[in-house]
Amino acid sequence: MPGGGGRHAHVIGRTSRKARENPFVGIENQNYDEICKKCRDEDILFEDPEFPADNSSLFFDENAPTRGNIEWKRPKEICDDPKFLIEGASRFDVKQGELGDCWLLAAVASLTIDQKLLFRVVPQDQNFEESYTGCFRFRFWHQGEWIEVVVDDRIPTYYDQLIYMHSTEKNEFWSALLEKAYAKLCGSYESLKGGSSSEAMEDFTGGVTESIDLTSPPEKLFNIMLKAFQRSSLMGCSLDADPNELEAKLPNGLICGHAYSITACKYVDIQTPRVKGKIPMVRIRNPWGESEWNGPWSDQSEEWRFIPDEEKLEIGLVNEEDGEFWMSFQDFCKNFKKLEICNLAPDSLDEEELNARSKKRWESTCENGSWIPGVSAGGCRNYLDTFWTNPQFRVTLTDADDDDDDNMCTLIVAVLQKDRRKKRKEGIELLTIGYMIYRLKEGDETGVKDVNFFKYNPSAGKSPSFINMREICGRHKLEPGSYLIVPSTFEPRHKGDFLMRVFSEKANQTGVMDEQTGLDDNQVDSGPTDEEWEQGEQLRNNFKEIAGDDMEIDAFELKDILNTVFTKEFDFEGFGIEPCRSMVALHDGDMSGKLGFEEFKSLWRDLRIWKANFKNFDSDNSGCLNSYELRSALRNAGFKLSNSSLHTLVARYSNKEGQIAFADFIMCAIRLKSILASFRNSDPDQTGIAAFHLEDFIQIAMYS
């Protein structure tokens, strides 16, 4: 739906397939307190029916072959004294198991740096002792809102050893249960194979993640990282994968295709016999808990002798094989290829923290939208004829950044496609997505922009690329003003739901570019063509011949009159009785079921305008309109349609291929005009809200 944000169209009082098929509905309906109470009342331990202890929770295909002896055990069956947390949580608690989810572990390790962020995700008031029920809860940011995910504490083991993520302490289980809750959210443990740290960083914080190519870094990158660390942002980095070997180890100790977390950025005091100053340093952690960098500034390297002991103590230098190491910023940029920075959402920092740390936070807004094939899935700018049908959003930037000498505004745009990791089990992969930004002129900030707008206006910005990742994010510098953002898939007709978020340093305003459904009666009628004049004469003669003495016709007689003309002009079987009944109802104010001659003339004028628009917008002369042509044809005929209204019409009047035949187009126009006219009579002040008596509503709905 062009400009289409918001929710899918929904008919009040009817069951929504969206609700029935929502893969997360069971998770949302589980209540931790109710589960715990039930378990205590019945003296049982919780067994999660939404994520059972079997292969369906491990793999996409529950019949997939597995190695033997995998057992799901509770911590009390694995060790004598299980603990949820031992002396708090730290980055050293997290070790990777057999699952290829180092991206998740890197994000968890980063999360532990800020205890406030960590304990929002991992509530610390949980244990295996008092009031133990086998039920644990975790909180994740999921597609625009915080949700609670409940799991039982049965964990997959192999000969009493945890298979997947675990703590270095054998009796500590918060990390293993966190991974299980995240696997439940994503559909299965196998769904966690392969990913980007940015996904988990966002799901742990609700932030927006930027990806930076370290082969061509932006100016002042270390200052960007330093500010990010000071603002409690989560950061991760990685190397390119070796195509010939999975997670190949380089001579310098780094692992190809592996995700690392950045745990500190700092200018470190250095003092040599000839120079004294500060050197930019980065502390990095391998989630494996081993395999460290062995180059300059690695553990016990000779460079550390130039650092004063008090400085080593302040930065927490530890010479152990724990997976954590320091690098100079120069070596960091030279050896790593990608940096991810998760900018925290405004609600991640409270006023006390802002004042205590002299911090600032982002201003943010978000909008939901959908790409619907044939309606609002127009593809990228390469497909100009359909690009305009994509969802369109307006963002207004009022004030420039405080420290910007060029009077520019920072704008971060992030478009996240929903549910794709969860649906991998169904064979649904990530879409290739991106976005474009256009400047809006003053006074032109409302209404859907059509193909001509994009044909004659250059873009003011665009996503870094079109890419098949869960989210695409870009940073832009723009002048204050109003802008149009158009998220899209790369190719047309790809279905998906998305969330668009906008971050700026100063307050911004966003909204869906949409039209209010309505009818413009002031359409210019250029009059009939010579052919139409002849058709009109024929119809008049047919009317007088069939009408009889009362000079009125019913729907059956109207059908015969119209088809003598329209079957000659259009290749179709003629109007059926239902369209003709609706034509009579459109001009039959007294509900007599008949049309007089003056009413018939008004109907002929409507039909003449509608058939002319159908022909004008049937660009390939196929005898059908696609959904994009439908909106243009109806708009030209005086109908203004909101995005949800267009979606409704396409769903109601299109054929299997999403095409609208001539007879269906006429039926659509008749019903639209009839209903809009009736609604307007009950809404004289044009508020968009009308009250109906039940009897009146039935007449409008059934006799139209």
Structural overview:
Its EC number is 3.4.22.-. InterPro entries: C2_III (IPR033883), Calpain_cysteine_protease (IPR022684), Calpain_domain_III (IPR022682), Calpain_III (IPR022683), Calpain_III_sf (IPR036213), EF-hand-dom_pair (IPR011992), EF_Hand_1_Ca_BS (IPR018247), EF_hand_dom (IPR002048). Pfam families: Calpain_III (PF01067), Peptidase_C2 (PF00648). It is an enzyme of class 3 (hydrolase). Keywords: Calcium, Hydrolase, Metal-binding, Protease, Repeat, Thiol protease. With 704 residues, the protein is an alpha+beta fold. The chain has four domains: 31-205, no CATH class; 208-343, Cathepsin B, Chain A (Alpha-Beta Complex), CATH 3.90.70.10; 362-514, Jelly Rolls (Sandwich); 530-702, Recoverin, domain 1, CATH 1.10.238.10. It is built from 23 helices and 26 strands. The strands form eight sheets. The chain has a six-stranded antiparallel sheet with strand order 6-11-7-8-9-10. Strands 16-15-18-13-20 form a five-stranded antiparallel sheet, with no helix packed on it. The protein has a four-stranded antiparallel sheet with strand order 12-19-14-17, with no helix packed on it. Strand 2 and strand 3 (145-152) form a beta hairpin. Helix 18 (577-587) packs parallel to helix 22 (662-681), helix 19 packs across helix 20 (627-636) and helix 19 (597-617) packs across helix 22 (662-681). Residues 1-11 have low confidence and may be disordered.
